[in-house]
């Protein structure tokens, strides 16, 4: 399996403002790779640097084994990109815009026209309408078609679902899975955990410009974290919970809730030392695990 995206200590500074710092990523051929973090974490900066839209301050990035700065134009011929915000010539009709986009690729005209009609049908988009008359969600559909019409080897999506209703989101995810089955690699950037959970094989978590975790999605789901909720006979003090493995502690007088990662016997031994009215031990939501990393 070859590596499609590879970065080495990729860094982008914006003067005194933070950009990204020492990003090291490997995305393998055929993966649907999630890139998740809150808004402002550095997802878009990473993507724009990969695409050569901005130059890194230091470090390097390769796509298809080629340097993104040296061979950028050649690389971008095989990439489909959907930015978080899409802007078009408002007075153009949708089919005019998409035919214009198709003209940039060295592929048969009839093939591209058929592809546009196929994708528009799947996404329920009227090709005859003017861009200025489209809702935000329909403009996003135009961007999706524009990114996929040339059947790219690599699809890069930056917060792609904004404006799409739940039914259309599902159609979009199904479309991505089909493109992936045909051989496309997908880099899917989002701040919405549920999207990544439904779609991706592996995920990188970015926080304040740094990658803090790269994990297989199944491994992340099957992590050793548990959620503990207890109710004691008296008021609980935070110092009591200063134990290795305890995080996300919340106390409300005699009630406490926390995440625990480690030897299950140690936490059960700890709980036996407390005068408890009740205790609940359950598997945490995946979102709680992500939020643990964000904090």
Write a concise keyword list for the protein shown above.
single chain, 295 residues, alpha/beta, Rossmann fold, Alpha-Beta Plaits, 2 domains, 6-stranded mixed β-sheet, 5-stranded antiparallel β-sheet, 32% helix, 31% strand
Task: Write the topology of this structure.
Elements: E1 3-14, E2 17-23, E3 26-28, E4 32-36, H1 43-50, E5 58-63, E6 66-67, H2 72-76, E7 79-82, H3 94-102, H4 109-123, H5 136-148, E8 154-158, H6 166-181, E9 185-190, H7 193-199, E10 202-207, E11 210-216, H8 217-221, E12 226-232, E13 246-252, E14 255-260, H9 264-271, E15 276-282, H10 286-294
Parallel strand pairs: 4-9, 4-10, 7-8, 8-9
Antiparallel strand pairs: 1-2, 1-3, 1-5, 5-6, 10-11, 12-14, 12-15, 13-14
Short description:
With 295 residues, the protein is of the alpha/beta class. 32% of the residues lie in helices and 31% in strands. Helix 4 packs antiparallel against helix 5 (136-148).
């Amino acid at each position: 399996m070859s590596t499609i995206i590879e970065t080495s200590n990729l860094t982008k500074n914006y003067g005194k403002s933070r950009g990204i710092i020492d990003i090291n990523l490997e995305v393998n051929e055929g993966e649907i790779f999630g890139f998740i973090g809150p808004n402002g974490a550095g997802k878009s900066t990473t993507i724009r640097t990969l695409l050569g839209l901005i130059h890194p301050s230091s470090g390097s990035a390769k796509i298809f084994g080629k340097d993104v700065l040296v061979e950028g134009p050649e690389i971008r011929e095989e990439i489909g990109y959907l930015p978080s915000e899409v802007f078009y010539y408002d007075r153009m009709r949708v089919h005019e815009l998409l035919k214009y986009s198709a003209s940039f690729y060295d592929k048969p005209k009839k093939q591209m026209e058929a592809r546009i009609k196929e994708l528009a049908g799947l996404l329920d988009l009227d090709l005859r309408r003017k861009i200025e008359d489209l809702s935000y969600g329909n403009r996003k559909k135009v961007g999706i078609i524009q990114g996929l019409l040339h059947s790219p080897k690599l699809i890069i999506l930056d917060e792609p679902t904004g404006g799409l209703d739940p039914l259309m989101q599902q159609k979009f995810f199904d479309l991505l899975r089909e493109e992936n089955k045909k051989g496309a690699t997908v880099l899917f950037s989002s701040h919405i955990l549920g999207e990544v959970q439904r779609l991706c094989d592996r995920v990188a978590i970015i926080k304040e410009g740094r990658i803090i975790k790269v994990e297989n999605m199944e491994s992340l789901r099957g992590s050793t974290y548990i959620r503990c909720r207890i109710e004691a006979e008296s008021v609980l003090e935070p110092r009591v919970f200063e134990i290795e493995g305890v995080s996300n502690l919340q106390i409300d007088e005699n009630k406490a809730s926390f995440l625990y990662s480690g030897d299950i016997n140690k936490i059960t031994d700890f709980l036996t030392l407390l005068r408890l009215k009740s205790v609940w031990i359950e598997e945490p939501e995946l979102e709680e695990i992500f939020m643990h990393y964000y904090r």
